[in-house]
């Protein structure tokens, strides 16, 4: 139950993982956002980062994405220490990040958003619209997204579909590691399921996926490794074999704190409705002793 690196099983003993953070720390002025955090992400694997609000999840991915610089520890890409000056640097090493508030232009067609900033042009400078339409359609189809019409404004797609377009786009432009910041947070059960399916697709296509989420029920089915953050520190870093869904949920939910609170309320209100509710919640989460 420490932040120690998980032993790796690999064909070649010296093959370094695509992304490796070791003992990374980051402060914003006097706020310590991260301290002594380690994680690995490798091709064909999904590494999940779980934690409550303010746990340091976004800080961690901003470091991986090249948006922020860590101030202690090391960041390696394929065994080589890196210090990215910008997300563009990270991108040239194949590390692509999909942020929760996707930078899309809602009124523009899906294909236009797919190629935004990387438009395909013909030799005389005009946009090759046909190519972009066809490519968008086939790349989405490749990931199992069957869009009726790539000319529809991206704003008409559901949140889940938009996340999927962003994932397909990163894959198309050569991402080798895909960082997803809470892609399922704002979605209902069905849409979240759609996004989780594409996370699995990306893994099957050989990408290293780092999946940030609050939700252990989203993380567990798709994850190979789980890093749980709490107030900037690692609460545990486990492979799937080492941890059950219930244990992950209890760790994540601050199960111990919830149980403590239930007991306190119980004592104060001697079995009031709120305490009962909390006790039931703790029991549902598998953290109550009764
Ligand atoms: N730019 C910043 N300047 C100052 N403090 C920051 C900055 N960014 C984050 N923090 C602080 O660092 C800590 C970790 O924040 P972070 O955004 O990484 O958490 P998080 O796990 O992503 O939370 P959430 O689930 O709410 O997105 C918090 O205490 C936050 O207030
Ligand atoms: Mg965040």
Corresponding CATH superfamily of the largest domain: P-loop containing nucleotide triphosphate hydrolases
Q: State the total count of DSSP E strands.
A: 10
Percentage of residues assigned to helices: 25-40%
Largest sheet: 6 strands, mixed
Following the backbone from N to C, one meets helices and strands in this order, namely EEEHEEHEHHHEHEHEEHHH
Based on CA atoms alone, the radius of gyration comes out at 21 Å
Terminus-to-terminus distance: 25 Å
Number of helices: 10
The CATH class assignment of the largest domain is Alpha Beta
The hetero molecules present are: adenosine-5'-triphosphate, magnesium ion
What value does the average pLDDT take? Answer: 83
Shape: globular
The strand line-up of the biggest sheet is: 6-7-8-3-9-10
> Helix/strand/pairing class, anyone?
alpha/beta
Question: Hey, roughly how much beta strand do the residues contain?
Answer: 15-25%
Pfam families: ABC_tran
Keywords: ATP-binding, Nucleotide-binding
GO molecular function: ATP binding
Protein name: ATP-binding cassette domain-containing protein
General description of the model:
This protein has helices at residues 57-65, 87-92, 110-114, 129-142, 159-172, 189-204, 216-222, 245-252, 255-269, 273-284, and strands at residues 19-28, 31-41, 45-51, 72-77, 80-81, 95-98, 177-181, 208-213, 225-230, 233-239. The chain is globular, with a radius of gyration of 21 Å. The model is unreliable at 1-13 (pLDDT under 50). The protein has a six-stranded mixed beta sheet with strand order 6-7-8-3-9-10, with helices on both faces. It has a four-stranded antiparallel beta sheet with strand order 2-1-4-5, with helices on one face. The longest helix is centred in the last third of the chain and has 16 residues, at 189-204. It has two domains: 19-252, P-loop containing nucleotide triphosphate hydrolases (Rossmann fold, 3-Layer(aba) Sandwich); 253-290. Strand 9 (225-230) and strand 10 (233-239) form a beta hairpin. It has 290 residues and is α/β, with parallel strands linked by helices. Helix content is 37%, strand content 22%. The structure holds adenosine-5'-triphosphate (ATP) and magnesium ion (MG). The site of adenosine-5'-triphosphate has 11 residues, from strand 2 and helix 1. Residues 28, 31, 33, 51, 53-59 line the site of adenosine-5'-triphosphate. Residues 19-256 form the ABC transporter domain. GO terms for molecular function: ATP binding. This is ATP-binding cassette domain-containing protein. It comes from Actinomadura fibrosa.
């Amino acid at each position: 139950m420490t932040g120690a690196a998980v032993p790796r099983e690999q064909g070649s003993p010296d093959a370094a993982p695509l992304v490796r953070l070791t003992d990374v720390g980051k402060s914003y002025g006097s706020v310590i956002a991260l301290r002594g955090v380690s994680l690995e992400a490798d091709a064909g694997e999904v590494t999940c980062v779980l934690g409550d609000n303010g746990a340091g999840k976004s800080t961690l991915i901003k470091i991986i994405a090249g948006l922020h610089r860590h101030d202690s520890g090391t960041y390696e890409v394929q065994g080589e220490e890196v210090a990215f000056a910008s997300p563009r640097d990270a991108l040239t090493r194949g590390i692509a990040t999909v942020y929760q508030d996707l930078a899309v232009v809602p009124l523009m067609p899906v294909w236009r958003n797919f190629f935004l900033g990387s438009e395909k042009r013909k030799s005389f400078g005009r946009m090759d619209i046909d190519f972009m339409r066809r490519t968008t359609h086939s790349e989405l189809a490749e990931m199992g997204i069957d869009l009726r019409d790539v000319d529809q404004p991206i704003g008409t797609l559901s949140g889940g579909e938009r996340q999927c377009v962003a994932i397909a786009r990163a894959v198309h432009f050569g991402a080798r590691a895909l960082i997803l910041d809470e892609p399922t947070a704002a979605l209902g059960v069905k849409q979240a399921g759609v996004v989780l399916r594409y996370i699995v697709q990306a893994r099957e296509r050989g990408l290293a996926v780092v999946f940030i989420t609050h939700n252990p029920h989203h993380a567990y089915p798709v994850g190979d490794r789980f890093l749980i953050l709490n107030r900037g520190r690692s609460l545990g870093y486990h492979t799937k074999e080492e941890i059950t869904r219930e244990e992950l949920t209890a760790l994540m939910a601050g199960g111990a704190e919830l149980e403590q609170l239930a007991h306190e309320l119980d004592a104060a209100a001697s079995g009031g409705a709120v305490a009962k509710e909390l006790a039931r919640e703790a029991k549902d989460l598998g953290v109550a002793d009764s």
